[in-house]
Amino acid sequence: MSAYSHEFFTLAVIHFLAVIIPGPDFIVTVRQSTLYGHRIGCMTALGIGCGISVHVFYTLIGVGLILSQNQSFMSIFQIIGASYLLYLSWNCVKGASKPIEMSFNQPSDPVQMTAQKAFMMGFLTNALNPKATIFFLAIFTSIVSATTPLGIQIFYGGWMCFVNAIWFVGVSLIFTRPNIRSGFLQYNAVLEKMMGVLLAVIALRLIWNVVF
Fold first, then answer.
1. In the chain, what's the furthest Cα-to-Cα distance?
2. Within 10 Å of residue 178's Cβ, how many Cβ atoms?
3. How far apart are CA 36 and CA 106, in angstroms?
């Protein structure tokens, strides 16, 4: 492993910087945490971490190379991912119209949002994120050497899954603090609409780049 320490360090730093930049994963984690509490927020974060395994898998088996060399396949994947972000955007805007009355220890609509649903939402948000696809194709083709053993590359992927999950569990911890969560819920309608608009902008920009 020591022979690949420089490669790993470069990959880890670039990946971490990409993770902490707010995007769909961040928006979904914040929304889930503030509306449903820390447990649901953590399950969403774990789903996001596991979602990276999809990108790691298709990159390692060579599908990533096929995607990067076939613009039609890449465009189809980007449209599917952008469509899912639009779906999340619509859920945010729709949720903004629902009144929320709760204390810090009483999650909103606990029956509707189960741990399994939260995990799958986090998983799909990351797995279908076209930007994540582009990011993985870029770093694995430009940073990771073709001669790097498969076991080492799997370790890289596992590390990135772990970092993503831990980072967004931390985000969940922050946004389930009583003062932060109560402030979010007080202005829920406005903030939900803002998050919905941000997701829609990200999705529409992706679609625009594909079409034009």
1. 57
2. 10
3. 8
Q: Centre a 10 Å sphere on the Cβ of residue 76 and count the other Cβ atoms it contains.
A: 13
Task: Note the pLDDT of residue 108.
Answer: 47
Instruction: Note the pLDDT of residue 107.
Output: 47
Residues 46-70 as b/e (b if ≥16 CB within 10 A, e otherwise) read: bbbbbbbbbbbebbbeeebeebbee
Tokens of 29: 């984690």
User: Tens digits of per-residue pLDDT, 90-112?
Assistant: 877 776 555 444 444 444 444 47
d(CA 178, CA 124): 28
Sign of CA dihedral 24, 14, 151, 1: negative
Residue 167 has which token pair?
A: 């980072």
Q: What percent of the chain has pLDDT over 90?
A: 25
| C-alpha distance from residue 103 to each of 28, 106, 107 (Å) | 21, 5, 8
Better pLDDT: 210 or 25: 25
Cβ of 39: how many Cβ atoms within 10 Å? 16
Closest CA to 29 of 184, 206, 202, 190: 184
pLDDT digit string (tens) for 130-155? 777 777 777 776 777 768 888 888 89
